[in-house]
Amino acid sequence: MADIDVESKRLARLTEGAEPASRVRDGSPTTELALAGLVLIALAARGFLVFRMNVNWDEFYFLSLVHDYLRGTLPLPFQTFHVHLFAWLPDIAGDEMAEILAARLAMTLLGIASAALIYGIGRRFLTRAGALFGLLAYLSFGYVIEHGASFRADPLLTVLGLTAIFAILRRPGGAAGAVLAGAAGAVGLLFSIKIALLLALVGAVYLCLIIASANRWRAMVEPAVFLVTLAVCFVPLFLLHRGTLSVEETGATAFLTGAAAKTLTGQGLAKMLNYALLSALRNPAIWLMLLGGFAIALREAACCRTRAVGEKLIPVVLSFLLPTLLLYRNAFPYYYAFALAPAAPLAGLFYDRLTSPVRKSLHRGPLLPASLILMLGATLALNVQRASPDFQAAQRQLLRIVHETFREPVLYMDGYGMVGSFPRASFFMSSWGMENYVAAGRPFFSGAVLDAPPLLVVANSPELADALLPERAIAAPRIALLDADIRYLRENYRPYWGVIFLPGRQIADDAAEEDRRFPIAVAGSYRLTAAAAVILDGRSVAPGAVISLERGSHRLDGPLPPGGVALDWAAVPPAPSEQPIDLKPFTSFVRAR
Q1: 146, 164, 488, 521: which is deepest, by most CB within 10 A?
Q2: Is the pLDDT of residue 439 over 70?
Q3: pTM of the model
């Protein structure tokens, strides 16, 4: 009983903030080694899945911005600072898939740094085992496993945001910590305005520290240093970045206003609810631990009657990004790796309180901690198994055939910038991009063809596939293209292979007189496909003949052979005989398995 009394007093001092968590040892090296081993397994699994997970359209677009920058065609300075960090990617041997996989490996290294920071943040108020447990809960979460190393701004923002939080929570934080946090926040703003969510959390943490301080006026100096550093670092870095762009920016204010209105005004509840529910179904134990840790932290803060309540509130405010999983418009599965990172120590708090020395003495054994660890291990194994099939095969095949068809870059159109090494004549066809397109009410693709006719169309978005592959669409379009764009694409591009379309024209054998006069959008060589010779522009052309056609109007005269006439772009090799692995190059964020 004496041992229990000693441990009870120690736990009481801890809950009142009198004893740092780092001085309360778990007392079981075996437990800590088991947790550390599972953390290493989770990090290794993330590296393995780099080569298995389907590359999302956001990642291809992120890469296309790097190529645009190197071509001198990147016009927008906002949220494009990553182009400097990844300007080395095009030097890698291979196509866009090789470049993205290399970038993902770099993100995996950043993920290891983020893991170390999550552990360090947890050690502010958790035991060593508790901090490892919270980190393992984060690394075992399904969406984190699948998207934690994706080539987006999110892994960059995560490590920078965690750096800022760790810098001000480490003992002692001081002015040096505030400077580091401000610099990290400034760089994060250059990557994405999404970092504003974590900067708000940093402000809440500073408020907790002010409450806990014996000299609150002096404590206010550090957040002031943070804000000054943020501004002093952001402005020159932004101006320097903007100065490297050779294309004059347009609509910068409208872009920032639109981004804030689209993403930070709570418009995404209905859209994101399904992702949140599925995450709860696939990770019930982790969610129970996070929510249980939050409830424990809230209760301990409510019971504290001294200024130590500021310390007790820190775990509570670390959960502030969790509601954004429903309110943030772009809280897709990849966002969870960003939003859950600061909240991960809550699972460790749940573990610490359930397996405290007092409770272990009462229960006479390690059964409870072992059960909790096994529960996380099982979740980790199931989520890794779900993500382990090869989801990249169709993307590798499609890009290989594009580059075999065009050995040199040509102007092209697609939905997401998949062929980043080629100059692109289309906008990013995300739901946001499509909403802006429809709101503008002006045909886009027909105008792009007229101004600078692309030689290649990759129908890799539901909208383009619906326009060019209506009989075998890859997915239902969220918002259909305007009728003028659908008509133009169908009239001026012909199927080549899979979702690859090249310039061409099809004229039916019963075409009306006015339809026999047709425009050619792209000047060049065309191969005639017909059952018999036809009169084209006043001369007889035999089936299979290759003719040169100028851009502009052309005419077919006389009777047309049965089956009509097709003109196909002839300046490329014949279409490959192999069948597409899948006409849908992008899978859903959420696996059906």
Answers
A1: 164
A2: yes
A3: 0.90
